Amino acid sequence: MKLWIRNANFTISLSLTLLRCLGFWSPDGLAGNKRLLYNCYSFVFFMFLLGIYILIQVVDMIKIWGDLPLMTGTAFLLFTNFAHATKVINIVIRKNRIQRVIQQANAVLMGVQSEEARRIVKSCDFETSIQLCLYFLLTFVTTVGWATSAEKHQLPLRAWYPYDTSKSPAYELTYIHQVAALLIAAYINVAKDSLVSSLIAQCRCRLRLVGLALASLGQDLKIDYQQTGNLVRLLSMGTYLMNMIFQVFIYCYQGNKLSVESSEIAGSVYFSPWYLGSVKLRRALLIVMVRSRRVAKITAGGFTTLSLASFMAIIKASYSLFTLLQQVKQKK
Q: What pLDDT digit, counting tens, does each position of 245-302 carry?
């Protein structure tokens, strides 16, 4: 079985390879017993990383219902794991559709010929790689902070267990499970988010290549142009906040850039030597200009557009909710 997945974008290669190793991106051509074994491997890993966490945190939420500070501490982990599980399930279910998108984009980006086109592809790869490194760094600091900030005989993450976790060896085994699952799940989350944001970046890259091709029409012709309290825990919670903000930001940033790149297609057509072409070519370019007036957008669930404006709206709403919770806590 081929482990490393090649792609014109390093971030996509790394993300898909990590997902394959952990059971969430099945190799092509698996059938029969091999397919069954891989599915069993995927299920066991899913339960180890997320399934057990979600169950014990739901029970814990029921047991502490009404205690707002404790509910807040459990809720942000529970909702994080719910979102994580939803994204994993979506990737597994829609694997074939995602793979077709990846293969089509990869064929285009790997087949570029001109120096300028290769520069565009490399700049896209560099940008997504930088985002991946920052995301990995924030995740590493957050997870290590959580793993090392637990008080004596306390677990890093609050949850309910059907046994006494303060006694040996239950405490040590539970601690190891929480830390191992936390680390692996966090990096899977990085891989999933980086995969999606990099695919959006590749769409932008393809739009830039289209714009370059249109602007380069007739470049071989001879034309005379005119001129135009616990420091470690506090640090880990701070980096967790930055991690979550960055997670939302990369989606909104790539979605915003996609809209910008698509809006510039008409300009690329205009600056090409369209006036030297045939009537048929000019008519085709006019159709391209008219159709490109409808800006490409990525939506989240069909109710909001991924853009920097949406990102700022989310930040404002989050801060408003934070101040509300703070006021409620002060009144108690």
A: 888 898 889 889 888 888 888 888 888 888 888 888 888 888 888 888 888 888 887 7
How far is 102 from 180, CA to CA, in rounded Å?
30
3-state helix, strand, coil in the chain (%, to 5): 75, 0, 25
| CA separation for the pair 250, 218 (Å, rounded) | 37
**DSSP per residue, 8-39:** SSHHHHHHHHHHHHTTSSPPTT--HHHHHHHH
> How far apart, in whole angstroms, are the C-alpha atoms of residue 233 and residue 179?
15
Contact 10, 125 (CB under 8 A): yes
Residue 225, pLDDT above cutoff 50: no
Rounded mean pLDDT of the chain?
84
Q: Give the number of other CB atoms < 10 A from CB of residue 66.
A: 6
Report the C-alpha gap between 218 and 118 in whole angstroms: 20
d(CA 45, CA 181): 9
Q: What is the pTM of this model?
A: 0.74
191, 98 Cβ separation under 8 angstroms? no
Encode pLDDT of 279-294 as tens digits: 888 888 888 888 888 8
The DSSP secondary structure of 161-201, one letter per residue, reads -SS-TTSTTHHHHHHHHHHHHHHHHHHHHHHHHHHHHHHHH
Note the residue count of the chain: 332
User: DSSP E strands: which ranges in the chain?
Assistant: 299-300, 304-305
Cβ 263 vs Cβ 307: under 8 Å = no
How many CB atoms are located within 10 Å of the residue 73 CB? 15
All residues at 6 or more sequence positions from 160 whose CB lies less than 8 Å from its CB, including other chains: 56, 57, 59, 60, 63
* Gap between the Cα atoms of 269 and 286, Å rounded: 8
Tell me which residue has tokens 């002060």.
330
Spatial separation of the C-alpha atoms in residues 251 and 200, rounded to whole Å: 8
Q: Is 240 exposed, middle or buried (0-12, 13-18, 19+ CB in 10 A)?
A: buried
- Per DSSP, the three-state class of 216 is coil
